Structure of UDP-glucose 6-dehydrogenase:
Amino acid sequence: MKVTVFGIGYVGLVQAAVLAEVGHDVICIDIDENKVENLKKGIIPIFEPGLTPLVMQNYEEGRLKFSTDAKEGVDHGVMQFIAVGTPPDEDGSADLKYVTTVARTIAEHMQTHKVVIDKSTVPVGTADCVRAVMTETLKTRQADIAFDVVSNPEFLKEGAAVTDCMRPERIVVGTDNAQVVDMLRELYEPFNRNHDRMILMDIRSAELTKYAANCMLATKISFMNEISNLAELLGADIEKVRQGIGSDSRIGYSFIYPGCGYGGSCFPKDVQALIRTAEKIGYTPRILQAVEAVNDEQKLKLPAYIKHHFGEDLKGKTFALWGLAFKPNTDDMREASSRVLMETLWQAGAQVQAFDPEAMDEAQRIYGNRHDLKLMGTKEAALQGADALVICTEWKNFRAPDFESVKNALKEPVIFDGRNLYDPERIIKRGFVYYAIGRGASV
Ligand code: UGA
């Protein structure tokens, strides 16, 4: 099938590459010329396991094209995906200006029937808004051309995006037109074998499903972080509690890992956007408000431990930081807890020597050349001469370091672990002071 994807961000690029891989004829449109030219040379704007070879191969074989020409994009696909960003506006609501711009562009150029598919995370009511913008634009053109608007949210995770897209757990389709369902069935047929993963519903329910899924996961995390704070105060070990409750199949083991707060481009933004949506219709979303507040406080947990240990004034102190990305297997630092940590340490006068396996360029881009941030080439180099080690991301190669050399490199053998990577008993036996999340240990 001929497919057009507007927006070469995370969702757009991965979705386009995966559709091309199964044989669809895909063109990606973006206004960023630089991005488009780079992609043609094989330079991929994001780090995502497995994505570069997938994009390159499909580009070389002609099933995946990149262009800035919106008209070319509209002419190409019967399916027109909208996968542009929906950043938060000043009050935290999702800003739809990029979505409506694409809707207008499609309506300006279309000559035949199009199926417009909202792939971006968009508030309930967006499909109506897309439909209104397109109807208005077609009216000014005096063009009587039919179109459909579908909500088909994406559920991929950064770091596992290609696999998530290739083997989706569910394909949510919100539409009011049975013919469109057939077209989407054909489009997704290669991903929908063995058993039917397509869940059909009305458009508004599909739009809300996306937010509800992310908010539910964020709720699980904030709930566990709250219990971890209680565990600490009550002298319990959250890791034991996690295993104890996870074994109940109704609760399950996933997304109940306590830590130094959730980050990324989705949970913080989506929780906030659903809060704003609720408030706008006069409903007070108490659980969601608490989820957000608990997370904001949780990001201050490691800085609080550090000040508890070293005092409020951190002038003259240097901290080794392992992990800048908001989670492993990505270079994304959006809303990462490492940022709150560094910014709080800098305010108290401290220096940071940081290492991350993938996010070093991103940190350089965000913070530039600061006198109080040194980006180090290895995790060992980050430790040299530092007063203590702080861990914000659970990258695999942080799990079993050579603890003797860690101890020798640090001025004081202290570890502040925001991801509960080590066994407190063993690490304390090795001579470390160990602060973790909800484990009592040295607090
Ligand atoms: C999230 C959802 O998991 C995807 O299903 C969704 O499609 C995506 O948002 C989106 O809306 O685009 P992502 O933001 O890539 O995916 O990252 P997650 O793996 O969900 O992790 C989010 C944050 O939660 C990370 O900071 C992670 O460290 C934290 N987390 C996760 C915990 O603190 N504890 C856990 O048990 C799990």
Remarks:
- The first strand starts at residue 2 and ends at 6.
- The longest helix spans residues 203-234.
- The pocket of uridine-5'-diphosphate-glucuronic acid is lined by residues 121, 154-158, 214, 217, 221, 255-257, 259, 262-264, 266-267, 326-327 (CB under 6 Å).
